[in-house]
Specification:
By secondary structure, this protein is mainly alpha-helical. The chain is 64% helix and 9% strand. It has one domain.
């Protein structure tokens, strides 16, 4: 079932949202200081392509630097990526078939706002303790 959901997700929303994350990651590669943000954008792009069956968990050892980085991320790229998820989620919720995918878009908004200090793991792994399941 996850395979079917992921393929439908890829066609309906995942590809375009992943393109947004890759574009943000490429733009953030230009200044050398923001390379950690671009790596986070590429990680989220992969999660956005294939979200069902994976979850987001807090990274152990993420401290103050990830908190400060998340504030900078929101200012640089997070707000417009979250807006993209919001608009896509609302558009998908207009049809009955698109409602589960719209809800999945809404669940991706927090990671688009604060990606640092979290990791993507498969559901059911030993590291999956308090994640947001899709």
């Amino acid at each position: 079932m996850r395979l079917v959901l992921n393929v439908l997700w890829l066609v309906l929303a995942g590809f375009w949202m992943a393109v947004g994350y890759v574009a943000a990651g490429l733009l953030l590669l230009i200044p050398i200081v923001t390379i950690p943000f671009s790596l986070a954008a590429f990680r989220i792009a992969g999660f956005c392509l294939w979200p069902f069956g994976r979850t987001l968990v807090p990274a152990r050892g993420a401290g103050v630097a990830s908190g400060v980085g998340n504030v900078l991320w929101i200012l640089l790229a997070g707000w417009w990526l979250a807006l993209g998820h919001l608009i896509t989620g609302v558009a998908l919720c207009l049809t009955i078939i698109g409602i589960p995918f719209g809800i999945a878009n809404f669940k991706l908004i927090p990671v688009s706002l604060v990606p640092l200090g979290s990791r993507v793991v498969p559901i059911g792994s030993a590291e999956d303790t308090a994640g947001v399941a899709f």
